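so my prof wants the structure for this chain in the tokens format not the other one, which i didnt know existed until like an hour ago. anyway here's the sequence
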Amino acid sequence: MKNTLLALLAVLMLLTYSSKAQVAQGLPFTFAADHSFLFSDYVPLSQVDPNPTTTITVYPNPVATLLTITSNKTMLEIVLTNTKGVSVYSSKPNNTSHAIDMTNYAKGGYTLKIVLQSEISQRLVITQ
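here's what i got, hopefully its the right format
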């Protein structure tokens, strides 16, 4: 089960990965003979957007109950997508903060898309 979760995490990280150099080479990780893998680069589960003019914070991550999203810019749309690519939550908050009740979602990984006025940001969210 641990290897399955790690593989799922690796696939989800590919969705949020942004380094063109690593994408051109294939995957942002390499597999070892024992079927483990090493990340050459990674996206943290909770992070602050690297663009200094925009700050987006998603916490707690992993989440069990309430997921909070804050930004210093107005969030126009928030979409939560499961591993099958199905949108399971969508909102147009038109605000700088938003919360999602995650208690009714299955445990696992989700992609969170946050649309701002001039940019789109994605985060990996893990429910427990």
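also thought this was worth mentioning. Confidence is low (pLDDT under 50) at residues 16-28.
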